Amino acid sequence: MSSALFAEIHFIDRIKNSAVSSSCSANGGAFGDYNRDGFPDLFIACLDRDIGSKLYENRGDGTFENRSDRISDVGAAMGGLFVDIDQDGDRDLYAIRFNRRNIWLINDKDKLRPLPDSLLSRGYAGATSASIADFDRDGLLDIFSVYRYSNPNELLLRPAVVGFNSQPEIQSVLSAGRETFSSTVFDYNGDGNLDLYVSHFGYEDALHRNDGTAFFTPVADSLGLTGVNFSVAGIPADYDSDGDFDLYIIHANEKPNKMWLNEEGVKFVHRDVGAEGIKSSSGGSATDWDLDGDIDLLVSNVEGIDVYENDGSGLFFDVSDRALTTSLRNKRKTAGITTSDYDLDGDIDALLFGLEGQDVLLSNESSRAHVIVVDWETKRASNVEVKTTDHGSQYYMTGLDSRLGSSEDLQTFIGLQGQGSVQLHVSWPSGYQQIIDNVSVDQTLRLSEPKKKGHTKIGLVQLPDGHYTWHEYLARVEIINTGEFLVTNLRLRGRVDLQGERVYEEEIKVPEIQAKTRMVVALPGWKDHSGGPFTIQIDLEGVEDDSGNGHWEREVYRHHFVDIAGEVGVDDSGNGWAAAMADGDGDGDIDLYVSNGGSFGVGENIYFRNDISHFSNVTSVNGTADSGNGTGVTFADFDSDGDQDLFMSRGGFLPPGETNRMLFNNGAGRFVDVSNDVGLSAVDASYAAVPGDFDGDGSTDLYVSQFRGQYNSLYRNKNNYFTDEWAERGIVSYQRYSGAAAAFSDLDLDGDIDLYASMFGTYDVFYANRNNHSYDKAQVGDEGDAVGIALGDYDADGDQDVYVVNQNWRSTLWENDIDRKIFVDVGDESGVENHSAGTGCAFGDYDNDGDLDLFVVNGSGPNRVYMNKGNGTFQDVTSLVGMLDTVRARSVVLGDIDDDGDLDPYIVNEGFPNRLYRNEGNSNGWLQVNLRGTLSNTDAIGARLTLYSEEELITRDVNSVAGLAQSSRRVHFGLGPVGFADSLKIVWPRGSRQDIALSSNIRSINLTEGRIPTRIVESFLTVVNQPRVFSNFPNPFNATTRLRFVLTEDSLVRCSIYNMLGQRVRNLIDEQLSAGNHEVQWDGLSDEGMKTGSGIYFYQFDFSGVTYKESMVLLR
Questions:
Q1: Helix, strand, coil percentages for the chain (3-state, nearest 5)
Q2: What pTM does this model have?
Q3: Three-state SS for 709?
Q4: Order of all β-strands in the sheet with 267-271
Q5: Other beta carbons within 10 Å of 34
Q6: How far apart are CA 13 and CA 226, in angstroms?
Q7: In this structure, are residues 741 and 788 in contact, taking their beta carbons and an 8 Å threshold?
Q8: Exposure check for the chain: N or C terminus, fewer CB within 10 A?
Q9: Under 8 Å CB-to-CB from 871, ≥6 apart: which residues?
């Protein structure tokens, strides 16, 4: 490599002369002039709890004085940043603390005092880094904080009287729940918006594009920035001097560092540039050390310090030998790097923090030519372009990050080889472009963003929180006048589009706004009747500004769940572990059984009977009481008598364990323990229990996984006696690893029922059934600690895919590739990779749009709701639908608890109240199918249903496995806005086929193998944005039935009940009602309060100029 080096880098260690002595395991820190005397002071973040972090004041002579008495106790910390967050003219301190929530220390007369915890975010343990910038371009600084241990990262917008405004709607994108080591701010595509690069240790890094309103989109894959793992930090700069910002990524675990060159914001390309190194890097700084006009590199490592000098073209020379003394080159275990001109000699110095108590203060003694120093008064610009007299350009970025302890002071050093004046082109986060001509060299400029005489823009936009509050206002919009004069004649326009169709447009006049003030105005409310993905656009018109600050746009997903567990009586707060859903008492609705115990050893199980509007605890009277170490639980018709029996596995955490229990249902919802009689009385430490007919004889068999060192069991059911055939069938067990959740399904589509068995601590096992006689076994999945699985055709290709939740590793989605006979990991690309401690999962179409969504619950970290976008990818909408929860969850099951046509999730928590989320639904149509086998097993487990709707196919299997738990086995189809299907095809487990023609108003159907439908419940055709009435449910009914209807506008509604003679029996409604979803019940009584007899009755609705009339049957 030929040298084109202009200057020479040289450092001298001045730590002994400086009087800085951290005497601790220092990870990072920051330079900053907190006392406004013109000299950069120093904050040192120590990891030692007993020593704590320290503050040093710069005396101005190259030495420092310990003034930790001027800072409140920070305790152990990872790093920090000096920045004027409250914009009062002095620098405050943001301290990043690993074991406690991060802390803001506000500068109060040169003393740093903490803000109360209540004024900050909730925070988490394991903080590593932070980035501070004006992400939403409102003129105020925001914070992005990152965390380890699967804790979600946080974006906090702007300080205010009550602290920061956390942004839950974007947390799903940014939080990741991975081992996040650092974050970095830079404008990778030159659009003026500050983007985020996030380093995930051991996982793929992420680059998030900012749209200017602090709404971020992951773009790393599309830009070719892939294969990045075990990274510590990304350090952006224009290394190749081509006008865009590249990324230098440092790695640990002796992985080489990498340079990714930015090609005009369109893609990143990896290049070896001579700065790779394999010394397990821990910190870095990109700075023009020799002030020759290009960006050099200083890297701290576990095994020494590296200095790389840029030759001007983006290629680097390792000049460590000449830049450092031998003892410095070999300095071990240095961590973060903070930079500043601490000795005010016109070049940049660096402090490298020592994890073993020996810091290094590098005084820059490099040869140099000329320099311009830009001192940012309050906040930095986004970037600076320097144009020289020979028409050359240099580009500098000005982010404010603490990258695992590495940081830079609020100064930018511009090295120049010539003496001529230059032009500075400064880009501010607000979008304002400032040009400063004829800037002479060898001077310091103090810059702040110029104030325009008249400048108004949109600040924060607040959307309604509650599901029903959108009719009050569309959005509350903050309008800011940062100029010097009164502003008048502004208009605010709001628009809402649903899949390209305009559904709302309103405009209001904005009152006059005084100079340097803010006001909040509300756009008129919007009545949403359908839910779905909406685009909201807000424009401030009459603004003489082309920066885009008068436009705000956001994709909003509208669907909502409401926790009603306490209201209906299922908020048990025991040591929850699993749950199962089924109609145990045969009354037509879904009951709940909750298994308690798990890792806490013992707990009282509970049977909740569904009594329509409330659940009753009937455990003590129906024979299902149990106080063992409950783990898995499942309902199934094991004795083939037509009702749901109950099997519970126990003792999974108490080897040698306990006896599992089989409870047969006597047909009236009462249960009898028959464990001894049916061969299931062995003492085991059991885990999951999964029913299915693996030998195809029409009886329901049972797979039970066991704690490590025991044999996983495959019980064959023959005449209601269960024999363990694990040895004959070759079921895999391990001495060191435990069995986990499993599922029966025809995964390879060859006509027989296979078994997918997950494992805790090693690879999962796929058992391919060969004609019901033997299994071919294959290792699948990964070596994670699997605890649960769910099956579903997420990509609508007709086969069953598998989601696996891992407790101590990533949970991911495995796509079933039938052609290649493999399962392919698509968790990352599909958007459902979960890095929290996974415990449960369930597939289900909660929004009735025809594709399967995914629920994932975690033992630590927030639960996840992934909405299927219909293109093979998912969107995390947890916070948008009202289900963001961080308690210790164990299981999630799905079922239409309230019989309203959508799936309601029930979440089992360990030591916290369980949650039942009522699905508020939308206007999409739906179909529910109950199957009963005759030749096949009576639950039809393993049956495949294909629904034909408008040339689309929707495939569902009967398996109901949800982690260790069991969802309702009633098959649920969402039909989208069309609301109906053409036909239904069933392939029963034993191979027979059945085709059913469907009329446009069928919503529920009962099917028995080989017979015509035994019951069909009809509903009116659902059409988006039209008033409608649904058929009553249940029908026939005894005593009470429900009538649901939807109004698209406020209307006078009349509803009455008539007998066969046309005589009015009961008047139910005669009043003005608001637009929305409504429901009324008829209890079978007349207007006089008398019981009506069995027979056919009619209900009639009149509203919006239309009459609806339907029949129903009352059976006493």
A1: 5, 50, 45
A2: 0.73
A3: coil
A4: 231-237, 246-251, 258-263, 267-271
A5: 28
A6: 38
A7: yes
A8: N
A9: none
